[in-house]
Write a structure and sequence with these properties.
By secondary structure, this protein is an all-alpha fold. It is built from seven helices and no strands.
Length: 178
């Protein structure tokens, strides 16, 4: 008997749940449900990286002649963090924790990365043979990977909605079918 998708799942996940037994689509569907959080984090982490880098690059281009690049970095930080928080809270981690309790923890994770960025950017610009846009793009890519653990275990630790395991397949049965 096929279980229904977890209560509170969105419409797309309810439709995907019906594909678990499909010979062609069952394997990727089961993989999605086992790695949902990581896959969505990669997608929305990628989006947030593009968004945050785009905001920073635009501000750097518009204000870089008049403001130091570290000030521009500080100005680009709030919209990038807000964009990331909304995606991670509502789509990736599906948190139910109060925003006033959770958002400061979330911001703290990004504050740490901001401070590291502020400290390393001047050094990287002196040492590496790249311009500021390339160095910042490299740093932004590293932040996506490093911040996942901080958000999973610190930012969203209390309100993180756990999804029941795929009960239609035991681990050994799923491994045989995959």
């Amino acid at each position: 008997m096929q279980p229904t998708a977890a209560r509170g799942s969105n419409r797309i996940e309810r439709r995907l749940d019906g594909l678990r037994a499909n010979p062609a689509l069952g394997r990727p569907t089961r993989f999605y449900f086992r790695r949902r959080e990581q896959l969505l984090y990669l997608v929305f982490g990628g989006w947030n990286t593009v968004f945050g880098y785009g905001v920073w690059a635009l501000l750097q281009y518009l204000l870089g002649a008049n403001l130091p690049y570290l000030v521009v970095l500080l100005l680009a930080w709030p919209p990038a963090v807000l964009n990331a928080y909304l995606a991670y809270r509502y789509i990736v981690f599906r948190s139910r924790e109060p925003v006033l309790k959770e958002f400061p923890r979330f911001s703290f994770v990004y504050l740490v990365t901001l401070l590291v960025n502020l400290a390393l950017l001047p050094v990287a610009l002196r040492v590496l043979p790249f311009n500021i846009y390339v160095v910042q793009a490299l740093f932004a890519g590293v932040v996506v990977v490093c911040s996942y653990l901080g958000h999973k275990h610190f930012s969203f630790r209390g309100g993180h909605q756990r999804h029941p395991r795929d009960t239609s397949f035991s681990d050994s049965t799923a491994a045989k079918q995959d």
